[in-house]
Design goal:
Blueprint lengths: L3 H13 L21 E5 L2 E4 L4 E4 L14 H12 L9 H13 L5 E5 L2 H16 L3 E5 L31 H4 L2 E4 L4 H11 L3 E6 L15 H11 L3 E6 L10 H6 L5 E4 L10 E5 L1 H4 L18 H16 L2 H19 L3 E5 L2 E5 L8 H5 L3 H13 L2 E2 L8 E2 L6 H12 L3
Parallel strand pairs: 3-13, 5-6, 5-7, 7-8, 8-9
Antiparallel strand pairs: 1-2, 2-3, 4-10, 9-10, 11-12, 12-14
Helix pairs in contact: 2-10, 3-10, 6-7, 11-14
The chain binds pyridoxal-5'-phosphate.
Pyridoxal-5'-phosphate binds next to helix 4.
Amino acid sequence: MNISKSQKLYSQALQFMPGGVNSPVRAFKNVGKTPLFIEKAKGSRIYDADGNEYIDYVCSWGPNILGHAYPEVIEAVKKSCDKGLTFGACHKGEVELAQIIQKNIPSMEMLRLVNSGTEAVMSAVRAARGFTGRDKIVKFEGCYHGHSDGLLVKAGSGLLTNSIPDSAGVPEGFTENTLLAKYNNIDSVAELFEKYGSDIACVIVEPCAANMGVIPPKKGFLKFLRDITCQYNSLLIFDEVITGFRLSLGGAQKYYGIIPDMTALGKIVGGGMPLAAYGGKKEIMECVAPSGSVYQAGTLSGNPIAVSAGLATLKILQNNPDIYNELERKSYLIESAATDSGLNVNRVGSLLTVFFNNAEIQNYDNAKQSDTKKYAEFFGYLLENGIYTAPSQFEAMFVSAAHTDKDIAYTCDIIHNFK
Ligand code: PLP
């Protein structure tokens, strides 16, 4: 495969951007390769600067559930551009988008539009703290909630001790109120509540984890989180940045039938543009400025172009509910091809991860034991065969509505032949 143009662009990029990229996982470091520079994308395909074509299962890390450059979404964006790029003032699209989100995710009684998943989660946590008047939060090892200071903690020095930040530049004081529990382990949560219960503002969780590879919640896990947060008057926040509008129109909360107090959305809600949202019960959201005293603002929040892309995407999903059955069918075929070949797969709906690890993967400790060298081999093999997947073991494969039966059959064949 000729990737000389990508290689040249990468060497230039290295001079100007840390690691040559604008977001770390794009650097292909975990798979020991040169990142591809993408020229264009359409439907299920992406094309690199050298003209190579790939079936894309990254889908921009989730937003492109309809595939790339879906005609009605592009049309909506073009029309919106003609009216101006940003107003810094209220507009009708914001109201329409809020209405369609609220209709499909009724627990978001009120919501606010922001620009990224990081911002949505950070703001939701602030609102939870403001509403409860408490400082501590519980998060789970291996769950990613964006790169705000207080949430950059995955592995700490133990459950009941203060958390150690994962990143340089985050003072320990910024994470001392972040308590760590183990995903799918109710005892680890119960212990934290026994010790700190009346100080815990919220539990934040990916209702189906997808940032340590895909790890579904065990039966009863989310219900337990719902019950214990109610018992201690803490809030339950679902980070549905990945799962929102992906596992179902109503997100993971509809899929699993557990209703949180607050929800963070990103990715699909912006239809491929920088837009995210957080919201929840009215009495909580009314704490946010200017109604209340929790400050949160944004120059480009509710940007009309981003809103038009989100709105068009959500309308298409809403008008074509069969998309979710189709995603399930196609994703199941990929899962089956992998399991038939002896690979270990976790899948929920159109999110899946092939783990190079023989154990059942239920939490971060299990996921970390995976053979990342073998994953890199798998990644390289798929890429050589025109299939673009996440350049890291600890990410999801995203199936989109644009993947044709032919794409899926080809992908299954290639996976079957992996040695
Ligand atoms: N929450 C989850 C579950 C995510 O997967 C991500 C990003 O992948 C974020 C939050 C942060 O979103 P963003 O990258 O838009 O800031």
